[in-house]
UniProtKB/TrEMBL annotation:
Lineage per the UniProt record: Eukaryota, Fungi, Dikarya, Ascomycota, Pezizomycotina
Native species: Colletotrichum liriopes
Protein's UniProt keywords contain Transferase: yes
Protein name: 4-O-dimethylallyl-L-tyrosine synthase
Xref: InterPro entries: ABBA, ABBA_DMATS-like, ABBA_NscD-like
Biological process (GO), any one: alkaloid metabolic process
Binding residue positions for dimethylallyl diphosphate: 80, 161, 163, 225, 227, 229, 308
A Pfam match: Trp_DMAT
UniProt record similarity statement: Belongs to the tryptophan dimethylallyltransferase family.
Keywords associated with the record: Transferase
An MF annotation (GO) of this entry: transferase activity, transferring alkyl or aryl (other than methyl) groups
Length: 392
């Protein structure tokens, strides 16, 4: 059964047990989000094996101010979540693209002494991609999301990431804006960015991949990633294989490539003999296609690539995607947390259940590391689903 937003839950007991020194403010807005998402977040932390102290710290941070990264072998997963803070004037004249509250939030977090938080690159890219003179600053721009943040919980610390979505304009594409913003960031080494630009311009598959968003870690620029998020409407595995190797430039990845192909078929419910050059079923949604990110940080000579398997748009159901993932993990001796993952999905599920839903899991991402796959499951809490507001 799904808990409705206006019903008391055990999550109120969690707040009641919080030490007074944390002095959590209670507002109608924060209480609503706590009731809708708090139990889901708590279930993920518990299933991923976080200590009681780390669970409490993460829950308090979540209340005051989701994804599941699978570990290697028997390593415990890590939990992340992303949010777009919504201001009272979002979409109105004072804040047409809902950016003010995110900026205020990060400034407050910085003043609070959040460990490791550095806003140098946030301020640079906010100005370069969304500031005065950019397409995002024009009065005629339709309302859309342009800025959000994410948090990663690891080893007792919470790290912050930021994402910028520039507004496409005639003669000034989001891709061009991102490239210029990176070039103006005083990076000591642009080798990876230059390699990406060449790949996107000259490669037959690369030309189908269109950058639309930039992601950074809110830490010192020397250590931050520069993640160029891009999408292709081509949905063949041949495209995925080619892009993941940056047009064949990355070597020694055959084993990981084969593992990715296996996971691709399992999570999308494809037969084992599904041709690598065959497209997935057509989907007209604006976020359909295959999503990638390219890390072009100054410390890299060649972009690191991650692919996001689009189970939300092309998988038969959440159950097929989840069971396919679990089957793959068990085949790689990584199944120790698999059952807990399935149980966590049931906490997220609406009344229709995961056998009949599609979208609880949005993506399953994969990157190559040391000849193997690093896998992350992305979950959608479906907080606006009608069942949250049901009184029955």
């Amino acid at each position: 059964m799904v808990t409705t937003a206006n019903q008391p839950t055990s999550m109120n007991k969690v707040l009641a047990q919080v030490p007074e020194k944390w002095n959590l403010p209670r507002t109608a807005d924060s209480d609503w989000w706590w009731q809708v998402l708090g139990s889901q977040f708590k279930a993920m932390l518990s299933a991923a094996g976080y200590s009681i102290f780390d669970q409490s710290s993460a829950l308090v941070f979540f209340y005051q101010w989701y994804s599941w990264k699978w570990g290697f072998g028997d390593g415990a997963p890590e939990v992340r979540y992303s949010i777009e803070p919504i201001g009272h004037y979002a979409g109105a004249a004072p804040d047409p693209l809902n950016q003010n509250l995110t900026c205020d939030f990060l400034a407050q977090l910085f003043r609070s002494g959040q460990q490791g938080l550095d806003l140098e690159w946030f301020n640079h890219f906010k100005h370069a991609l969304l500031g005065p003179g950019t397409p995002a600053s024009k009065a005629e721009v339709a309302s859309q999301s342009t800025l959000f943040v994410a948090f990663e919980i690891s080893s007792g610390t919470i790290s912050v990431k930021a994402y910028f979505i520039p507004v496409d304009a005639p003669g000034n594409s989001a891709s061009d804006q991102i490239s210029r913003a990176i070039a103006s960031a005083s990076c000591p080494n642009l080798a990876a960015r230059n390699q990406l630009d060449i790949f996107l311009r000259k490669d037959v598959y690369g030309r189908t991949v269109k950058p639309f968003m930039l992601g950074i870690d809110c830490i010192g620029p020397a250590e931050s990633r520069l993640k160029v998020y891009s999408r292709s409407r081509v949905t063949t595995f041949e495209l995925v294989r080619h892009v993941m190797s940056v047009g064949g430039q990355r070597k020694g990845i055959k084993k990981a490539e084969n593992q990715l192909h296996k996971l691709w078929k399992l999570t999308l419910g494809l037969p084992d003999d599904f041709p690598v050059d065959k497209e997935l079923s057509y989907n007209s949604h604006e976020t359909a296609g295959v999503l990638f990110y390219f890390d072009v940080a100054p410390k890299s000579a060649l972009p690191d690539v991650k692919v996001y398997i689009p189970v939300r748009h092309y998988g038969p159901s959440d159950a097929v995607a989840a069971n396919g993932l679990v089957q793959y993990l068990k085949s790689q001796s990584q199944g120790i947390y698999a059952q807990k993952y399935l149980e966590t999905l049931k906490v997220f599920a609406t009344r229709e259940g995961i056998n009949n839903s599609n979208g609880l899991q949005t993506y399953i991402s994969c990157a190559y590391k040391n000849g193997a796959l690093v896998i992350t499951s992305y979950l959608n809490p479906q907080c606006y689903h009608p069942s949250w507001f049901s009184t029955t």
